[in-house]
Specification:
The chain is mostly beta strands and about 280 residues long. It has 3 domains: about 90 residues, OB fold (Dihydrolipoamide Acetyltransferase, E2P), CATH 2.40.50.140; about 90 residues, OB fold (Dihydrolipoamide Acetyltransferase, E2P); about 80 residues, OB fold (Dihydrolipoamide Acetyltransferase, E2P). It has 4 helices and 15 strands. The strands form 3 sheets. It has a 5-stranded mixed beta barrel with strand order 1-2-3-5-4. Strands 6-7-8-10-9 form a 5-stranded mixed β-barrel. The chain has a 5-stranded mixed beta barrel with strand order 11-12-13-15-14. A hairpin with a 2-residue loop joins strand 6 and strand 7.
Length: about 280
């Protein structure tokens, strides 16, 4: 911050700024990281506004940086009074209908739509009554972690294009205009029901679903997987699980720990009466 800035005057100016309002000003600087620093109308003493690179545009192509001296109008998305900064979004003013739609949503709200596209990184949902997204096939987006409680390989194992779904709204992603959703939140968490039915030292049967450098994951119930750490695979020290078990193999394991809060299940094959069913 400029040593010559009167922080009292700056904070008094920021008190008048409201999230969701529009601010205009002149571009004072474009940084190496393509953030745009703006001198706001009404406070010419110092450039208090900033548009982060991801808030310049929702286009998948790199946005063209505004030029120094160019006038811009952008929506206020945050006011940092401690650091005397106004965070702005030009993408919001380029897509006012979509931005207004996203701002009306409330966390925990149930919203519906149709599966528009299934990608390798998640699922797009065309939401009922939403405007079109300028780039994506749907305004709603479900990450794979929020798609289902149970283990799956691809999104098509859970949903299909055209399917109607109801999801819980988690929040919107301001940098790309997406409504982040959870489909799994619409179903009871199977881990909690499982935790009610097991205790430490109990013997279970399960199927190996994944090998990782530090152990293997074993599915012991629908939607419930536990980790068998390398040190719990065999009595002998191991550097990798390969060669000891294979994906798809049925194994006998013992419950070591059930962590409800973090939804973690620790298992041991070493302590089981026999290693393989």
């Amino acid at each position: 911050m400029d040593e010559g800035l009167d922080h009292g005057d700056a904070r008094a100016f920021l008190e008048r700024i409201r999230i969701g309002g529009l601010c205009s000003g002149v571009v004072a600087e474009v940084t190496r990281s393509h953030d745009v620093v703006v001198t706001l109308d009404g406070f010419p003493e110092y450039p208090l506004g900033i548009v982060r690179r991801l808030d310049l545009s929702w286009s998948p192509s790199p946005p063209v940086d505004p030029e120094i001296g160019q006038r811009i109008t952008a929506e206020v998305i945050a006011v940092d009074r401690d650091n005397t900064r106004v965070h702005l979004s030009m993408a919001a003013t380029e897509n006012p209908e979509l931005w207004d739609f996203l701002k009306r949503l409330r966390p925990g709200e149930i919203i519906s739509g149709r599966i528009a596209s299934i990608e390798s990184f998640g699922v797009f949902v065309a939401l009922d009554d939403s405007p079109d997204h300028p780039v994506c096939p749907g305004v709603g987006f479900i990450t794979f972690s929020e798609l289902s409680w149970r283990h799956f390989e691809t999104g098509t194992d859970i949903v299909h294009v055209g399917q109607r779904v109801s999801c819980k709204f988690l929040g919107f992603h301001a940098s790309n205009g997406e409504a982040r959703l959870s489909l799994r939140a619409m179903q009871p968490d199977p881990f909690q029901a499982f935790a009610d039915s097991v205790e430490k030292g109990q013997v279970l049967y399960g199927r190996v679903t994944k090998l990782v450098p530090f152990g293997v994951f074993v599915q012991v119930a629908d939607g419930v997987e536990g980790l068998v750490h390398l040190r719990e695979l065999t009595e002998m020290p191991l550097e990798a699980p390969e060669g000891v078990v294979q994906v798809g193999e049925e194994v006998m394991v013992v419950v070591i720990e059930v962590d409800r809060e973090r939804r973690r299940l620790a298992l041991s094959r070493r302590l089981a009466p026999s290693g393989i069913c």
